[in-house]
Amino acid sequence: MEFLKKLGIEGTNTGTSTGRKFLGSGAKEKLASYTPIDNSQIADVTVTTREEYEHVIETAQKAFEEWRMIPAPQRGDIVRQIGLELRANKEYLGRLVTYEMGKIYQEGLGEVQEMIDICDFAVGQSRMLYGKTMPSERPKHRMYEQWHPLGITGIISAFNFPVAVYSWNAMIAAVAGNVMIWKGSEKTPLCSIAVQNIIAKVLKRNDLPEGIFNLVTGGPEVGKWMSSDERIPLISATGSIRMGKEVAKTVAARLGKTILELGGNNAVIVSKEADLEMAARAIAFGAVGTCGQRCTSTRRLIIHEEMFDSLKDRLVAIYENVNIGNPLDEDTLVGPLIDQQAVDNMQKALDEIEQQGGERVYGGEVIDKNQLSDGNYVRPAIVTAQNDWDIVQRETFAPILYLMKYSDLDEAIAMHNGVRQGLSSSMFTLNLREAEAFLSTRGSDCGIANINVGTSGAEIGGAFGGEKETGGGRESGSDAWKAYMRRQTNTINWSDELPLAQGIEFDVD
């Protein structure tokens, strides 16, 4: 396929890179990459060996010494050039994201656009790594703070956003003066290699050293190497809550820093004063987009009892007209789940719902392979449920939408907040008081809270992340850059005396 060749993807690919070149791997172990479209194999990728990992670490440490001394605006210019290369390869990379991960082509393009957008954001940020000047209580003293890079930033990303989430971290960390080691998902290794090939063009053009943007490939073992490595002061990990707890425990044991983007169990509250059609469209996109495999996917729908039946009927009508199929086809709105395990997990969740007494309102079945292909296709499901059921309390990474009723706003907010996760949230209402209550201290306890906007589809300008078991981390925009740097307070005495703070006198003859 042309897009694979354009991105430098071959039959067998080396999964370890120090930026400008891939290491000639002697590794025998390989990962096979499969497309969820029909479960056929795309290519092989060699797994990073321990010896190669050590070489990457040492190369990154050496590169950091040089990269951190390049002025931040010049580092920003390198990121600007990476953005231009991504623009030139947007269609190819977007198609690879679709082919290897399964999201529809428009979403694949959108993911690459996020990479481009964060590059643009980071270029501006490179001139705004601001500190503060504070008045000193001592005469002829100047006090201020400044920010320094941490060193190596370890990035562990997930299959559902195989390229965008990496860029949220890498481009901001790069302008801050850090170097990166990236372990992409073992389910989408070709996307990682393609991005590395794109970045390598810029590094070679500017004659930059090896070790600034590094790649390692493998399963949980490689992630454990990174998490336990004292040479990596910051680990940014995206994935399941279970995985995040292991990363947090390991990194905390060595007093390292973490940015954790873990599970979401996102809800939309629909008021009796909502624009029903607007709500229905946003809910449908949030629930079935990426086949329910976004961390911001809409999982729970909390509907005012007066609106329940009409909204349920409208959603069923929308779901009946959603085209399911090959995500590379332009008229497809829902592609496949990532693999057979994801299909099985969805079926188990639906069985549990029915055992609890929930009603399957629409969908949920595995689509007969004769109708499509040998891919992992399911029909998005709508079910009734209770918020306190165990299955509703857990995040099933599949297109299952739980419908629940409420009678007053306090009840709705309590249901909304009554889960262990706290990523994205939304309320649809035209009532100003309801909207402000939802956004107030007594309202949503999530890191993202929207009014008349769905849970899915965050812009890069705001900080992205959540609370509770979502991990508490923040990436992307706003002042998220501070997580990749260390703060230093400085005091300069330009007098000929040595006054002490707090008026302390300590005379020494």
UniProtKB/TrEMBL annotation:
It holds the Pfam family Aldedh. Residues 28-489 form the Aldehyde dehydrogenase domain. The active site is at 261. GO terms for molecular function: aldehyde dehydrogenase (NAD+) activity. Gene3D superfamilies: Aldehyde Dehydrogenase, Chain A, domain 1, Aldehyde Dehydrogenase, Chain A, domain 2. CDD domains: ALDH_F7_AASADH. Keywords: NAD, Oxidoreductase. It comes from the Bacteria. InterPro entries: Ald_DH/histidinol_DH (IPR016161), Ald_DH_C (IPR016163), Ald_DH_CS_GLU (IPR029510), Ald_DH_N (IPR016162), Aldehyde_DH_dom (IPR015590), ALDH7A1-like (IPR044638). Its EC number is 1.2.1.3. PROSITE patterns: ALDEHYDE_DEHYDR_GLU. Belongs to the aldehyde dehydrogenase family. PANTHER family: ALPHA-AMINOADIPIC SEMIALDEHYDE DEHYDROGENASE (PTHR43521:SF1). Homotetramer. This is aldehyde dehydrogenase (NAD(+)).
